[in-house]
Amino acid sequence: MQDASGAVVAFEHVTKRYPGSDAPAVDNLTLTVPAGEICVLVGPSGCGKTTSMKMVNRLIEPTGGRITIGGEDIMSLPAVELRRRIGYVIQQVGLFPHLTIGENTAVVPKLLRWKADRTRKRTDELLDIVGLDPARYRDRYPNELSGGERQRVGVARALAADPPVMLMDEPFGAVDPIRRDGLQNEFLRLQSRVRKTIIFVTHDVDEAIKMGDRIAILQRGGILAQYDTPAAILANPASEFVERFVGADRGLKRLSMGRVRDLDHIEPVIVRSGEDRAEIRKRLDRSDELTFALLVDDDNRPLGWIDQHDLRGDGPIDPGAATPGAPTVEPESTLRDALSAMLGSSVQLGVVVDERGRVAGLVSVDAIGERLRAPVRGVDGELHEVGEADATS
User: Fold this and answer.
1) What is the DSSP track for 375-391?
2) Alpha helices (runs of H) in 274-380, residue ranges in sequence order
3) Does 9-256 carry CATH code 1.25.40.80?
4) Do 9-256 and 261-370 show the same overall fold?
5) b/e for 38-49, b at 16 or more Cβ within 10 A?
6) Domains of the chain by residue range
7) Helix residue ranges per DSSP H, 112-146
8) C-alpha of 275 from chain center
9) pLDDT number for residue 324
10) Among 213, 201, 194, 199, which residue's Cα sits nearest to residue 167?
11) Is the pLDDT of residue 389 over 60?
12) Domain 261-370, CATH homologous superfamily name and number
């Protein structure tokens, strides 16, 4: 079993039956999670998603089938040794109240009998990675931290021994919505660095779409209804159950996955106060896509739009000729947020700005629509066409 980077996790016809129950909790589950990816298990209550996850570290023992990590059968290792190799994050964090934050983070390295210097270095490194200054937080206790801070410590503790696999059981479910969104974003940035193989359980389909490289939708009885990329599931639900579960607004949900940086940018016609109207008209006439020029200040920040009809006549342009309120979007903005901003504007174009608010390009409503209709890639590696109804639903 690998010990520093992500490892492939495979379920092979895995079943779990409890004594006295006629139906299995998990029924013949087969799926493969590639190394370094996040697989989200999602579905209604009682569908077996948490049971499936807990079988990976044998908190629940499988009744049948096989689970492997990096090609190694989990049943070939003692359960305690297996669990020390797998990071585990739960909703209520589960920090030890009598231990400091540093001691909580170091629990597994100490069980593995790491030397004190190595343990201290790893603890400080992880607290820094999850955004908690070691000098400030190392010697504090859990009751001195906010819920979001405790959750970060839980993630740091799960990463402490550099496991190839992490299990996350509704890790952000107990955090308020604003902090939850921030923690999700922070974790995705962290995952881009550490590239662990993660099995993530949630009941929230929007969280599954945001967090998952792949999504396994389970239905009652532990039956796998669909396993694919979020985009492929939203574009082509495999059944009526999946279609109902992801919701009628799945077209808009697809927009939440894309980013402005993914679109081709349009080169704006930039105008500054005092420029000659005739010269501006010439530049605008050369554009095949634009009927508006963009007025900017001396720092290249957008001030408003100037319609081609307002450029008639001669003489310099003045700021009063611009229609204020050009919607600005950042490269990291979701396409859903960008579309919302543009539809509320008199000009259905968004101004892409950098971290200093300077113009970097334009994006259009039409470009977002094209992205929504574009083929999506599934776990089979094939491109799947999106039907018109799916693109607009």
Assistant:
1) -EE-TTS-EEPPPHHHH
2) 277-285, 335-343, 365-373
3) no
4) no
5) bbbbbbeeebbb
6) 9-256, 261-370
7) 116-129, 134-137
8) 44
9) 79
10) 199
11) no
12) CBS-domain (3.10.580.10)
d(CA 8, CA 70): 5
CA distances from 73 to 11, 51, 246 (A): 10, 18, 33
Identity (one letter) of the amino acid at 204? D
pTM, two decimals, is: 0.71
Q: Which residue carries 């000098």 as its tokens? A: 135
Determine how β-strand 86-90 pairs with β-strand 72-73.
unpaired
Number of helices (H), then strands (E), belonging to the chain: the values are 16, 19
Q: Looking at the predicted structure, is the pLDDT value of residue 185 above 80?
A: no
What DSSP character marks residue 334?
B
Task: Look up residue 156 and give its two tokens.
Answer: 């740091």
Q: What is the pLDDT of residues 270-324, one digit of tens each?
A: 999 888 888 888 888 888 888 889 999 989 999 989 888 888 878 888 777 788 7
Q: Which two tokens stand for residue 97?
A: 């109240």
Residue 295, amino acid: L
Confidence label for 69 from pLDDT (cuts 50, 70 and 90): very high
| Rounded distance between C-alpha atoms, residue 221 and residue 264, angstroms | 45
Please tell me the distance from the alpha carbon of residue 284 to that of residue 306, in angstroms, as a whole number.
Answer: 10
Tokens of 321: 């000729």
